[in-house]
Amino acid sequence: MFEQLGLIGCGLMGGSFALAVKKAGLVKRVVGYSKSPSTTERARQMGIIDVEAPSALLAVSGADLVLVAVPVSASEATFKAIRHLITPNMLIMDVGSTKLDVVEAARRVLGAHLGSFVPAHPIAGKEVSGVEHADAELYIGKQVILTPVEKTQVGKLKKAIDLWEAMGCHVQQMAPESHDAAFAAVSHMPHLLAFALMHAITSQPLGKDFLALGGPGFRDFTRIAASDPKMWRDVLVANKHEVVEQAKMFQRSLLNMLQLVEDSQGEKLEAMIEQASQSRAHWRMGQKGK
Ligand code: NAP
User: Residue 41 belongs to a domain with what CATH number?
Assistant: First the structure.
């Protein structure tokens, strides 16, 4: 399907993408670049990339598919670094967890090439990051949200959809703004809450003793608190407006419930828990509610 993938950012997401497209026979050759030469070298040793590029610009030279898999805060600098070697036949995508900031960076930098850029967010990942965790199976069966803009070329969008589907993904399209609002609710807030809870417990004098008593509920609730700090710093800052909106709604629910606890209003508290419990019991990943 593609001759050459130019991969910028040979970490967990980029490395997994390269392994997956190679395994599926969708790309013949992968040229990769990462900020640290040691990461790029490791990616070649692991068979993730075939050729190490000395710069982002040279990674895209001769590619017909480009994947930008860097922290979202590095998107604009990456677009600037590659723009002079973008050709009309290239399909350019990213995998950033936020979309409006990446789309705005692309609008500022890519100019006439904006139509070749199909913003993407695969709903796949791990708590661990780095090239050593790259996994050819990471994307299989996962959702991928594409957030095309007015200028996105129809042919490039179709190629992107075909590629992700050929990797075993379910593709959905959304506006970047709707993406960021939704993921603030179901991804960014849960991560913020998990970080805040761990922080609150470990800041107490007896915090370590409390942690030692945590059971399966605590384990499940806090699993995502072990996620990569730099990546999550970037995501929360990039989507701050939507995160703050969701945090206000959460605060309202929390304060309501706390008040009911304080006032021993058992019945009203139970009704709120019942509503939450029913919603969670009927929730299925990737399925729209009734
Ligand atoms: P990662 O494992 O840390 O990989 C990021 C890679 O980007 C690293 O190899 C890093 O190089 C490289 N890099 C950083 N700045 C760069 C720059 N300016 N130019 C070139 N390369 C640069 O992180 P990841 O989990 O793959 O995340 C990558 C993207 O995927 C992020 O935008 C994130 O929001 C998105 N995402 C992540 C997940 C997840 O669960 N992890 C899920 C969905 C989307 P060094 O190794 O040299 O530092």
Answer: 3.40.50.720
